[in-house]
């Protein structure tokens, strides 16, 4: 009987260094291009609504739970808000204003903020809400 010597099989190695480099670059790419939702302004509990769409408004009025109105990080009254908003809206092509009101804010304060925006010349007025959490 003829005995043949078995040749050792060549070991197959994968170049893991290149694979790790690619994964690392993809990780950096996705971290840099992703956007994390961070709302500026007051810490408000917005009312929830099922119907709604995402709108970007450059000017935002905030109403806290006590009914205090804030614009551009400054506490303001509704009468002053009309003047300040009309100056800001005069320089803008889009006349959009967003009202972010706490769900426990008095209705009168929210309506006066919305009314001040309309009197200042806002063409589009949006009320900020959040989507209900899934069960």
Could you characterize the architecture of this molecule?
With 135 residues, the protein is an alpha/beta fold. It has a domain of 69 residues: Nucleotidyltransferase, domain 5 (2-Layer Sandwich). It contains 3 helices and 5 strands; from the N terminus they run αβββαβαβ. It has a 5-stranded mixed sheet, covered by helices on one side. Helix 3 links the parallel strand 4 and strand 5. It is rod-shaped. The protein starts with 15 loop residues before the first helix and ends in an 8-residue tail after the last strand.
The strand line-up of the biggest sheet is 3-2-1-4-5
CATH fold group of the domain at 59-127: Nucleotidyltransferase, domain 5
Please write the CATH class name of the domain at 59-127: Alpha Beta
CATH A-level architecture of the domain at 59-127: 2-Layer Sandwich
Low-confidence regions: none
Instruction: Output the helix-strand order.
Output: HEEEHEHE
- How many β-strand runs? 5
Q: What is the helix content?
A: 25-40%
Helix count equals 3
Residue fraction in strands:
15-25%
Q: What is the CA-atom radius of gyration, in angstroms?
A: 28 Å
Structural class: alpha/beta
Overall residue-averaged pLDDT value: 82
- The 3D shape can be described as rod-shaped
């Amino acid at each position: 009987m003829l005995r043949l010597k078995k040749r050792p099989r060549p070991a197959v190695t994968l170049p893991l260094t290149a694979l790790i480099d690619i994964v690392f670059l993809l990780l950096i790419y996705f971290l840099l291009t992703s956007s994390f939702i961070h709302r500026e302004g007051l810490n408000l509990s917005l009312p929830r609504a099922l119907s709604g769409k995402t709108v970007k408004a450059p000017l935002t009025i905030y109403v806290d739970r006590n009914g205090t109105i804030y614009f551009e990080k400054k506490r303001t009254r509704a009468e002053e808000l009309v003047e300040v908003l009309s100056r800001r809206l005069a320089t803008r092509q889009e006349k959009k204003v967003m009202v972010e009101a706490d769900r426990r804010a008095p209705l009168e304060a929210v309506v006066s903020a919305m009314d001040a925006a309309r009197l200042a010349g806002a063409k589009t007025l949006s009320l900020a809400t959040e989507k209900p959490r899934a069960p």
